[in-house]
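Continuing from the previous page...

OK, I double-checked the sequence for Terminase against my notes and this is the correct one:
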Amino acid sequence: MTRKADNREQRLPVPAGELPDFVPVPRQTDRHDGWTEDRQRRFIAALADTGSVHAACKAVNMSQAGAYHLRRQPGAQSFRAAWQAAIDLGLQRIEDVAMDRALNGVDVPVYSYGKLVGTRTIYNDRLLMFMLRNRAPERFTEGRAKGLNAVGQMELKRLKKQWREEYERERAQGGEARVYEALDAKLKALHQRRLDSMSPRARAAWDAFKAIEAEDEAAGYRWWEDPEHPKYDAGEDEEDGDDWEERALPAPGWE
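Thanks. Re-ran it with the corrected sequence; updated structure tokens here:
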């Protein structure tokens, strides 16, 4: 399949010296409509101009998926470094555009009864203060780049969403059970530490207590059936309303 010529490839070159030289990603076949060395260099230059992978791919008439695939290929280390440098330059250009809009305003159309009657210039003072605070924080924010707080809040929101997704994913994969197992192991370790800190006499008494408790449990011991138990009630005083079974029942309406 032959790729059609696209006028989007006709663009002004980036001035020399702004981008680091790099070694194009080696290709197995040299297709004229593929990622040739010339197209890779023009892609990086377009990326530096726009700061957008989408726009840079359009400039060289290639797909975004193909660009990301190329970046992952063996021998693409130099290409990836040039990609990052181009993104940095693109961000600077976007910042320059934002400053230009903050200073000179933006022309918006004015309509009257559905007809265009002219334009007016809109100025964004908040955008201007944001740019000043970030470009000269020592002069406009008392040494603190307050404008970065908004970026920080956006990053924090993104991380919270990412952490929540990771938690839900781990929970769906049995992560909650692993948490309970870890807590149980921690509690057992603390209990063992307590036992290890006992004196020999206290440890012997504890072991004897646990042994007797295990024997009672194995025998099905019930304290309310043991006449020797202090709280045993044989049932002689059932009429006085002090039977243990009645005391054990909840009051009507209890939830």
